[in-house]
Amino acid sequence: MKLVVQMKLLPSPEQAAALEATLRACNRVAAHVSRTAFETGVTDRNGLQKLVYADIKATFGLSAQPAVRVVKKVVDAYGALAASLKAGRLGAPGARRYRKAIGSPVTFRPDAAQPFDDRCLSWQMDARTVSIWTVDGRMRGIRYTGSPDQLKTLAEYRKGESDLVQRDGKWFLIATCDIPDPEVYEPADWIGVDRGIVNLATTSDGTNHQGRRLNRYRRWQARKRAELQARQSRSATRRLARRAKKEHRHATHVNHRISKEIVSVAQRTGRGIAVEQLDGIRDRVRLRRDQRGTLSTWPFHQLGQHLAYKARRAGVPFVEVDPAYTSQRCPRCGHTERANRPERHRFSCRRCGLAGPADHVAGVNVRNRARSAWVFVTAPVPAPA
Q1: Quick check: 339 and 327 in contact, CB under 8 A?
Q2: What angle do CA 18, 24, 28 make, to 5 degrees?
């Protein structure tokens, strides 16, 4: 499996100036290549490189390998745009966002990240320094640091490109690591995980990762955002951007903590992890106006991603099951009815009388569906007749 590790660079002022000039030069070239791709309609790597390679070297003075990486960066950007359009993430073809996306070239910020391959960037693991190409020549001896686990992963499994990133005046290298997948064991049972808004994750064991403290934090952030938006000043806009990044980091930390705890329990007890497949939930569910912000500002998909990759890294079985009626179905008698859930927090079966917390019942239903799904996943392929 592929993971990324983030190394913090510790450049001197001269080195930092060279890195900043390099980012700005590469993104100026990327903007030029993007305009060419938009005007000609050529977005494949070989065709676009033939069109712009000579011009990049003659006009902008980039070396051969950085020029190739810039072209690849533009091609990847247009590929990501095409995937978003195909998946409907920018609306229907006639929607305003859709028309805006296809009506102009892909743009690049002056300080957008720039990928470097092993010809442009080399790592000296023992000395904890990197040597990197810049517009001012090869810059050697730039120190980097990271957590012990990150440094170990980088030294053992680094492979492929690394992205140079500038964020809030700090410099980072995000390196790709190719970690071998451990063998997935046969689960003795499953832990069903129900994801929600009030309770972020509730397992079939009854463990409830509540979001009360987090919800208070988010409501406080929402009030501060409203106050800053009302001011409509440049300083308020800058503070809004910083506050948004801080809230995103906080949400990511909470998702990491929850997923790590669930995976460790599954690994210790020899069980697998099952979650609901919630793809496209924003398109399927109609919410009241006061609920939309709550649903849209919490990264539920990220929690599922964290569970998936942590389980894969630990060799824990992981499946996604059909989410239909998991909160309305009785796990004992199978009776499914909307009236089984008279309140948001309470489940009470109208047929057999089974009652309990609604999220816990949903987690049990997810676990039961995983038991059936795993049989089909691991069943041998029948021999041809």
Answers
A1: no
A2: 145
Task: Choose among 314, 329, 322: nearest CA to 272.
Answer: 314
Query: Rounded to whole angstroms, what are the CA distances from 224 to 11, 228, 230, 234, 237?
Result: 35, 6, 10, 16, 12
- Average pLDDT (350-359) is 92
**Quick one: pLDDT at residue 213?**
74
Q: Which of 199, 177, 67, 59 is nearest to 120 (CA)?
A: 67
- Name 2's Cβ contacts closer than 8 Å, sequence gap at least 6: 160, 176, 177, 178, 179
Q: What is the pLDDT of residues 247-305, one digit of tens each?
A: 888 888 989 999 999 999 999 999 999 999 876 555 555 666 666 666 666 677 888 89
Q: How far apart are CA 369 and CA 322, in angstroms?
A: 8
> Rounded to whole angstroms, how far apart are CA atoms 302 and 74?
26
Cβ–Cβ under 8 Å, residues 133 and 114: no
Task: For the chain, report the end-to-end CA distance as a whole number of angstroms.
Answer: 36
Residue 177: phi and psi, rounded to 5, are -125, 135
pLDDT higher than 60, residue 53: yes
The answer, yes or no, to whether residue 241 has pLDDT greater than 80, is yes
Per-residue pLDDT reduced to its tens digit, 170-212 = 999 999 999 998 999 999 999 999 987 778 899 999 898 876 6
288's CB contacts (< 8 A; 6+ apart) are none
**Alpha carbon distance 184, 367 (integer Å):** 18
Question: Using an 8 Å Cβ cutoff, are 116 and 175 in contact?
Answer: no
Structure tokens at 343: 């309140």
| pTM recorded for the entire structure | 0.80
**Chain centre distance of CA 334:** 36
Asked whether the predicted pLDDT for residue 315 surpasses 70, the reply is yes
pLDDT at 367 over 80: yes
Phi and psi torsions of 239, nearest 5°: -65, -35
With beta carbons less than 8 A apart as the criterion, state whether 284 and 323 touch.
no
Going 180 to 182 to 183 to 188, the CA torsion angle's sign is negative
Instruction: For residue 335, count CB atoms less than 10 angstroms from its CB and return exposed for 0-12, middle for 13-18, buried for 19 or more.
Output: middle
